[in-house]
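Human: I wish I could look at a protein chain and see how it folds. This is the protein in question:
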Amino acid sequence: MAKTTKTTNAQAPVAAGYVPDLKKVYKEEIVAKLMKEFSYSTVMQVPRLVKITINQGIGDATGDKKLVDVAQQELSIITGQKAVTTVSRKDISNFKLRKGMPIGVKVTLRGVKMYEFLERLIRISLPRIRDFNGISEKMDGKGNYTLGIKEQIIFPEINIDQITKILGMEITFVTTANTDEEAHALLREFGLPFKKHNN
């Protein structure tokens, strides 16, 4: 009897029991390194990556609803999961904004899709940034980290000849870490290329 499959993104159905490479790396290597670095007494204390959220705010959406539709389609392609629209919570007359108006798109990734997106981000997309020299180390004070991306075209899933507008995004890594130091160490071991300090 053939194994059942489940789809992790729009392009690739994978076999049941599939474990992403970065999840294996976490279990087989990162846990041990962090146990030693922070002298945890139990594996349960080792911080984990819980979810990755990707947000795109579209300032011009008030004048062109199609921009939200395009951004939704692009972010869905990038992440392999359908993006949802975000709407304004109140009226802001100065920006011609009405409550409930679509102003952006977002995706929340967990499990297999989270690990696969992280691997593509680290190994493929970030190195495509021109003059790239690492990402900022600034955490949020609560053990989470947000990375700002200026152009969606760093993702190879996007056909640069078909884009209608350059859009940035914020990618937030939510962890169980109690401190920024622990969260930084976790994300560093996953391979996020933080800027090197010159001593």
Q: What stands out?
A: Residues 1-11 have pLDDT under 50 and may be disordered. The first helix runs from residue 21 to 38. The two ends are 60 Å apart (CA to CA). The helical segments are 21-38, 66-79, 111-125, 180-190.
